[in-house]
Amino acid sequence: MSLLEVKNLFIEDIRNNEAIVSDVSFELKCNTCLGIVGESGSGKSMTTKAILGLTNPWLKVTGSAKFKDIELLKENSDTIRKIRGKNICMILQDAMSAFDPLYTIGYQMIETLCENINLPKKEAEKISIEALEKMYINEPKQVIRKYPHQLSGGMLQRCMIALAMAMKPDIIIADEPTTALDSINQREVVEEFKRLKEMTGTSVIFISHDLGVVQHLAQDILVMKNGKCVECGKASEVFKNPKHEYTKYLIDTRLRFTDSFRKSMILEDEVCCCK
Ligand SMILES: Nc1ncnc2c1ncn2[C@@H]1O[C@H](COP(=O)(O)OP(=O)(O)OP(=O)(O)O)[C@@H](O)[C@H]1O
Ligand SMILES: [Mg+2]
Q1: Which among 163, 77, 173, 155 has a CA at the least distance from the CA of 115?
Q2: Arithmetic mean of pLDDT, 79-85
Q3: Measured in angstroms, how far is the CA atom of residue 56 from the centroid of ligand 2?
Q4: Is there an atom of ligand 1 within 6 Å of 45 CB?
Q5: Please, which of 83, 132, 149, 250 could form a disulfide with 137 given CB 3.0 to 4.6 Å?
Protein backbone atom coordinates (compact mmCIF):
# COMPACT_ATOMS: atom_id res chain seq x y z
CA MET A 1 0.00 0.00 0.00
CA SER A 2 1.20 3.48 -0.83
CA LEU A 3 1.73 5.81 2.15
CA LEU A 4 2.97 8.82 0.22
CA GLU A 5 2.34 9.37 -3.45
CA VAL A 6 3.98 12.25 -5.26
CA LYS A 7 2.81 13.03 -8.78
CA ASN A 8 4.13 15.54 -11.30
CA LEU A 9 5.90 17.72 -8.76
CA PHE A 10 7.24 20.97 -10.19
CA ILE A 11 9.15 23.65 -8.28
CA GLU A 12 9.82 26.94 -9.97
CA ASP A 13 11.71 30.00 -8.76
CA ILE A 14 9.26 32.78 -9.63
CA ARG A 15 12.00 35.42 -9.32
CA ASN A 16 13.67 34.21 -12.51
CA ASN A 17 11.25 31.56 -13.84
CA GLU A 18 13.88 28.92 -13.31
CA ALA A 19 12.70 25.31 -13.00
CA ILE A 20 14.25 23.70 -9.93
CA VAL A 21 12.33 20.42 -9.96
CA SER A 22 10.44 19.21 -13.04
CA ASP A 23 7.82 16.52 -13.18
CA VAL A 24 9.04 14.28 -10.38
CA SER A 25 6.77 11.39 -9.38
CA PHE A 26 7.36 8.57 -6.91
CA GLU A 27 5.65 6.61 -4.19
CA LEU A 28 6.67 5.47 -0.75
CA LYS A 29 5.08 2.20 0.26
CA CYS A 30 4.26 1.22 3.84
CA ASN A 31 7.18 -0.16 5.83
CA THR A 32 9.74 0.39 3.08
CA CYS A 33 12.67 2.68 2.43
CA LEU A 34 12.96 4.82 -0.68
CA GLY A 35 16.47 5.99 -1.46
CA ILE A 36 16.91 9.29 -3.34
CA VAL A 37 20.32 9.70 -4.99
CA GLY A 38 21.79 12.26 -7.35
CA GLU A 39 24.57 14.79 -7.59
CA SER A 40 24.71 18.01 -5.58
CA GLY A 41 22.06 20.50 -6.75
CA SER A 42 19.93 17.84 -8.44
CA GLY A 43 16.89 18.77 -6.33
CA LYS A 44 16.81 16.00 -3.71
CA SER A 45 16.34 18.30 -0.68
CA MET A 46 13.96 20.62 -2.53
CA THR A 47 11.70 17.73 -3.54
CA THR A 48 11.25 16.56 0.04
CA LYS A 49 11.06 20.06 1.54
CA ALA A 50 8.32 21.02 -0.94
CA ILE A 51 6.20 18.06 0.15
CA LEU A 52 6.33 19.34 3.74
CA GLY A 53 5.73 23.00 2.92
CA LEU A 54 9.27 23.99 3.85
CA THR A 55 10.20 25.96 0.74
CA ASN A 56 10.72 29.72 0.56
CA PRO A 57 7.79 31.88 -0.60
CA TRP A 58 9.49 32.67 -3.93
CA LEU A 59 9.30 29.01 -4.91
CA LYS A 60 6.10 27.91 -6.63
CA VAL A 61 5.23 24.29 -5.96
CA THR A 62 2.66 22.48 -8.11
CA GLY A 63 1.57 18.88 -8.58
CA SER A 64 0.31 16.45 -6.01
CA ALA A 65 1.71 14.91 -2.83
CA LYS A 66 -0.76 12.64 -1.09
CA PHE A 67 -0.08 11.33 2.41
CA LYS A 68 -2.75 8.71 3.11
CA ASP A 69 -5.82 10.71 1.95
CA ILE A 70 -4.41 14.16 2.60
CA GLU A 71 -3.27 16.33 -0.29
CA LEU A 72 -0.25 17.97 1.34
CA LEU A 73 0.23 20.65 -1.32
CA LYS A 74 -3.29 21.98 -0.75
CA GLU A 75 -3.48 21.84 3.06
CA ASN A 76 -3.23 24.96 5.21
CA SER A 77 -0.02 25.64 7.10
CA ASP A 78 -1.47 24.64 10.52
CA THR A 79 -2.41 21.17 9.34
CA ILE A 80 0.94 20.72 7.61
CA ARG A 81 2.74 21.78 10.79
CA LYS A 82 0.80 19.15 12.75
CA ILE A 83 1.61 16.49 10.16
CA ARG A 84 5.29 17.50 10.31
CA GLY A 85 5.26 17.14 14.08
CA LYS A 86 3.41 13.85 14.29
CA ASN A 87 3.28 11.90 11.04
CA ILE A 88 6.22 12.89 8.84
CA CYS A 89 9.48 13.92 10.50
CA MET A 90 12.31 15.38 8.52
CA ILE A 91 15.94 15.09 9.56
CA LEU A 92 17.48 18.15 7.96
CA GLN A 93 20.79 18.12 6.13
CA ASP A 94 22.05 20.99 8.30
CA ALA A 95 21.72 19.80 11.90
CA MET A 96 22.70 23.16 13.39
CA SER A 97 19.72 24.93 11.81
CA ALA A 98 17.32 22.35 13.22
CA PHE A 99 17.87 23.35 16.86
CA ASP A 100 17.19 26.69 18.50
CA PRO A 101 20.51 28.05 19.87
CA LEU A 102 18.74 29.57 22.89
CA TYR A 103 17.50 26.33 24.44
CA THR A 104 19.22 23.15 25.63
CA ILE A 105 18.97 20.00 23.52
CA GLY A 106 16.99 18.30 26.29
CA TYR A 107 14.48 21.12 26.56
CA GLN A 108 13.86 21.02 22.82
CA MET A 109 13.56 17.23 22.68
CA ILE A 110 11.21 17.08 25.67
CA GLU A 111 9.05 19.99 24.43
CA THR A 112 8.76 18.41 20.98
CA LEU A 113 7.76 15.03 22.40
CA CYS A 114 5.26 16.56 24.88
CA GLU A 115 3.67 18.79 22.28
CA ASN A 116 3.45 16.41 19.36
CA ILE A 117 2.75 13.06 20.93
CA ASN A 118 1.22 14.20 24.21
CA LEU A 119 3.70 12.68 26.61
CA PRO A 120 4.05 13.77 30.23
CA LYS A 121 7.33 15.60 30.89
CA LYS A 122 8.98 12.84 32.94
CA GLU A 123 8.16 10.22 30.32
CA ALA A 124 9.44 12.49 27.54
CA GLU A 125 12.72 12.96 29.40
CA LYS A 126 13.14 9.21 29.87
CA ILE A 127 12.40 8.57 26.18
CA SER A 128 14.82 11.34 25.10
CA ILE A 129 17.65 9.81 27.14
CA GLU A 130 16.93 6.32 25.80
CA ALA A 131 16.79 7.65 22.24
CA LEU A 132 20.17 9.36 22.63
CA GLU A 133 21.63 6.13 24.01
CA LYS A 134 20.35 4.26 20.97
CA MET A 135 22.19 6.79 18.82
CA TYR A 136 25.42 5.90 20.64
CA ILE A 137 25.65 9.15 22.56
CA ASN A 138 27.75 8.75 25.69
CA GLU A 139 26.47 10.34 28.88
CA PRO A 140 23.06 11.34 27.46
CA LYS A 141 22.04 12.81 30.83
CA GLN A 142 24.77 15.38 30.44
CA VAL A 143 24.17 15.92 26.72
CA ILE A 144 20.54 16.92 27.24
CA ARG A 145 21.74 19.82 29.43
CA LYS A 146 23.92 21.21 26.66
CA TYR A 147 23.16 23.99 24.18
CA PRO A 148 23.50 23.27 20.42
CA HIS A 149 26.77 25.24 20.09
CA GLN A 150 28.35 23.02 22.75
CA LEU A 151 27.97 19.93 20.56
CA SER A 152 29.73 18.91 17.34
CA GLY A 153 27.87 18.69 14.02
CA GLY A 154 27.94 14.88 14.22
CA MET A 155 26.51 14.90 17.76
CA LEU A 156 23.72 17.29 16.73
CA GLN A 157 22.94 15.09 13.75
CA ARG A 158 22.59 12.10 16.06
CA CYS A 159 20.39 14.10 18.46
CA MET A 160 18.14 15.01 15.55
CA ILE A 161 17.92 11.40 14.38
CA ALA A 162 17.22 10.30 17.98
CA LEU A 163 14.38 12.79 18.28
CA ALA A 164 12.84 11.79 14.95
CA MET A 165 12.98 8.12 15.92
CA ALA A 166 11.51 8.79 19.39
CA MET A 167 8.51 10.48 17.76
CA LYS A 168 7.68 7.19 15.99
CA PRO A 169 6.13 8.93 12.97
CA ASP A 170 4.67 7.17 9.95
CA ILE A 171 7.47 8.51 7.76
CA ILE A 172 11.00 9.75 8.46
CA ILE A 173 12.64 11.79 5.73
CA ALA A 174 16.38 11.69 6.34
CA ASP A 175 18.35 14.17 4.25
CA GLU A 176 21.98 13.03 4.10
CA PRO A 177 21.80 12.04 7.76
CA THR A 178 25.25 10.48 7.89
CA THR A 179 27.43 13.03 6.10
CA ALA A 180 28.61 14.73 9.31
CA LEU A 181 29.57 11.40 10.87
CA ASP A 182 32.79 9.39 10.62
CA SER A 183 32.59 6.00 8.93
CA ILE A 184 32.16 3.91 12.10
CA ASN A 185 29.33 6.12 13.33
CA GLN A 186 27.83 6.14 9.84
CA ARG A 187 27.57 2.37 9.88
CA GLU A 188 25.96 2.34 13.33
CA VAL A 189 23.43 5.00 12.39
CA VAL A 190 22.51 3.22 9.16
CA GLU A 191 22.00 -0.02 11.13
CA GLU A 192 19.77 1.92 13.54
CA PHE A 193 17.61 3.08 10.60
CA LYS A 194 17.31 -0.50 9.44
CA ARG A 195 16.36 -1.67 12.93
CA LEU A 196 13.84 1.17 13.30
CA LYS A 197 12.12 0.20 10.08
CA GLU A 198 12.00 -3.47 11.06
CA MET A 199 10.81 -2.83 14.62
CA THR A 200 8.34 0.03 14.25
CA GLY A 201 7.31 -0.22 10.61
CA THR A 202 8.28 3.41 10.02
CA SER A 203 8.74 4.14 6.32
CA VAL A 204 11.88 6.04 5.40
CA ILE A 205 12.95 8.35 2.59
CA PHE A 206 16.71 8.30 2.72
CA ILE A 207 18.60 10.92 0.70
CA SER A 208 22.25 10.12 0.18
CA HIS A 209 25.25 10.56 -2.06
CA ASP A 210 26.41 7.16 -0.93
CA LEU A 211 25.02 4.43 -3.16
CA GLY A 212 26.43 1.79 -0.81
CA VAL A 213 24.24 3.06 2.03
CA VAL A 214 21.20 3.30 -0.21
CA GLN A 215 21.81 -0.21 -1.52
CA HIS A 216 21.94 -1.46 2.07
CA LEU A 217 18.71 0.23 3.17
CA ALA A 218 16.38 0.96 0.30
CA GLN A 219 13.84 -1.27 -1.43
CA ASP A 220 13.06 1.41 -4.00
CA ILE A 221 15.24 4.06 -5.55
CA LEU A 222 14.81 7.42 -7.26
CA VAL A 223 17.74 8.81 -9.22
CA MET A 224 17.69 12.58 -9.81
CA LYS A 225 19.68 14.80 -12.14
CA ASN A 226 19.10 18.50 -12.89
CA GLY A 227 15.78 18.54 -11.06
CA LYS A 228 14.39 15.56 -12.97
CA CYS A 229 13.87 11.92 -12.16
CA VAL A 230 16.07 9.94 -14.53
CA GLU A 231 15.31 6.52 -13.11
CA CYS A 232 12.92 5.11 -10.53
CA GLY A 233 12.11 1.58 -9.47
CA LYS A 234 13.00 -1.38 -7.31
CA ALA A 235 16.51 -0.91 -5.93
CA SER A 236 17.56 -4.49 -6.73
CA GLU A 237 16.47 -4.01 -10.37
CA VAL A 238 18.06 -0.58 -10.74
CA PHE A 239 21.37 -1.77 -9.31
CA LYS A 240 21.36 -4.96 -11.41
CA ASN A 241 20.15 -3.43 -14.61
CA PRO A 242 20.47 0.37 -14.68
CA LYS A 243 18.76 1.84 -17.72
CA HIS A 244 19.88 5.44 -17.69
CA GLU A 245 23.46 6.47 -18.51
CA TYR A 246 23.64 8.61 -15.38
CA THR A 247 22.60 5.71 -13.11
CA LYS A 248 25.23 3.52 -14.82
CA TYR A 249 27.78 6.23 -14.18
CA LEU A 250 26.82 6.46 -10.48
CA ILE A 251 27.04 2.69 -10.04
CA ASP A 252 30.36 2.44 -11.93
CA THR A 253 31.87 5.23 -9.85
CA ARG A 254 30.72 3.52 -6.70
CA LEU A 255 32.17 0.16 -7.81
CA ARG A 256 35.47 1.77 -8.84
CA PHE A 257 35.69 3.43 -5.45
CA THR A 258 34.91 0.19 -3.61
CA ASP A 259 37.42 -1.63 -5.79
CA SER A 260 40.26 0.80 -5.18
CA PHE A 261 39.38 0.81 -1.48
CA ARG A 262 39.52 -3.00 -1.44
CA LYS A 263 42.84 -2.99 -3.32
CA SER A 264 44.32 -0.46 -0.93
CA MET A 265 43.25 -2.66 1.97
CA ILE A 266 44.86 -5.72 0.35
CA LEU A 267 48.08 -3.77 -0.31
CA GLU A 268 48.10 -2.62 3.30
CA ASP A 269 47.67 -6.22 4.42
CA GLU A 270 50.55 -7.31 2.18
CA VAL A 271 52.81 -4.59 3.61
CA CYS A 272 51.87 -5.71 7.11
CA CYS A 273 52.62 -9.36 6.25
CA CYS A 274 56.07 -8.42 4.87
CA LYS A 275 57.05 -6.62 8.06
N1 LIG B 1 16.01 28.59 -1.23
C2 LIG B 1 16.26 28.44 -2.51
N3 LIG B 1 15.80 29.31 -3.44
C4 LIG B 1 16.03 29.12 -4.75
N5 LIG B 1 16.76 28.10 -5.25
C6 LIG B 1 17.27 27.22 -4.40
C7 LIG B 1 17.06 27.33 -2.97
N8 LIG B 1 17.69 26.30 -2.35
C9 LIG B 1 18.26 25.56 -3.33
N10 LIG B 1 18.02 26.10 -4.54
C11 LIG B 1 18.45 25.56 -5.84
O12 LIG B 1 17.68 24.41 -6.11
C13 LIG B 1 18.48 23.41 -6.75
C14 LIG B 1 18.32 22.10 -6.02
O15 LIG B 1 18.83 22.25 -4.71
P16 LIG B 1 18.76 21.09 -3.63
O17 LIG B 1 19.18 21.71 -2.34
O18 LIG B 1 17.46 20.42 -3.69
O19 LIG B 1 19.90 20.09 -4.16
P20 LIG B 1 20.36 18.70 -3.54
O21 LIG B 1 20.16 17.66 -4.59
O22 LIG B 1 19.72 18.49 -2.23
O23 LIG B 1 21.94 18.95 -3.39
P24 LIG B 1 22.95 18.51 -2.23
O25 LIG B 1 23.31 17.08 -2.51
O26 LIG B 1 24.11 19.42 -2.38
O27 LIG B 1 22.27 18.68 -0.90
C28 LIG B 1 19.91 23.96 -6.76
O29 LIG B 1 20.17 24.43 -8.05
C30 LIG B 1 19.89 25.08 -5.78
O31 LIG B 1 20.76 26.12 -6.16
MG1 LIG C 1 20.41 18.48 -0.29
Answers
A1: 163
A2: 92
A3: 15
A4: yes
A5: 132
